[in-house]
Amino acid sequence: MNDELMTIGQMCEKFDVTPRTLRFYESRELISPERRGQHRLYNRRDRGRLKLILQGKRFGFSLEDIRQLLELYDPTGDNMAQITATIAASHERLADMIRQRDELTYAIDDLTQKLAEAEQLLTARKSA
User: In terms of pLDDT, which residue wins out, 101 or 77?
Assistant: First the structure.
């Protein structure tokens, strides 16, 4: 069953994406479905790559970053280059995400304080 080919509709349902998304990833050479006439058929490799693409997007990687990491895959090798590059890119992305979270936390705290001050001012003026 793992080598089973899937249609574009089946892929969309399984991965909760649109046909347009799949065609876009194909145009960017991130996936390469088999073509039979007008039909696209996706194999196990395409499904694995799509899963990694979607995960990478969820973590905030650019499509170019994802493409570069996917291109390091060597089905005949140990993939140490791909694993090493993925770990390095992931550490960088995690550091960015933590920085963004910290900045957002600061902004939330600051806005919360300013909002409380404004509400207190409004309450004081209504009482006067």
Answer: 101
| Mean pLDDT across 89-115 | 98
Read off φ and ψ for residue 8, nearest 5 degrees.
Answer: -65, -35
Domain borders along the chain are 1-61, 72-128
Fold of 1-61: Multidrug-efflux Transporter Regulator; Chain: A; Domain 2 (1.10.1660)
d(CA 36, CA 8): 12
Q: CB–CB of 6/42 below 8 Å?
A: yes
- CA angle at 107 for the pair 104 and 108, rounded to the nearest 5°: 85
Q: Which long-range contacts (CB under 8 A, 24 or more apart) does 41-45 make?
A: 41/5, 41/6, 41/7, 42/5, 42/6, 42/7, 42/8, 42/10, 42/11, 43/3, 43/5, 43/6, 44/2, 44/3, 44/4
Do 85 and 72 touch, CB atoms closer than 8 A?
A: yes
Q: How many CB atoms lie within 10 A of CB 120?
A: 10
Nearest Cα residue to 6 out of 52, 39, 38 = 39
pTM: predicted TM-score of the whole model, two decimal places:
0.80
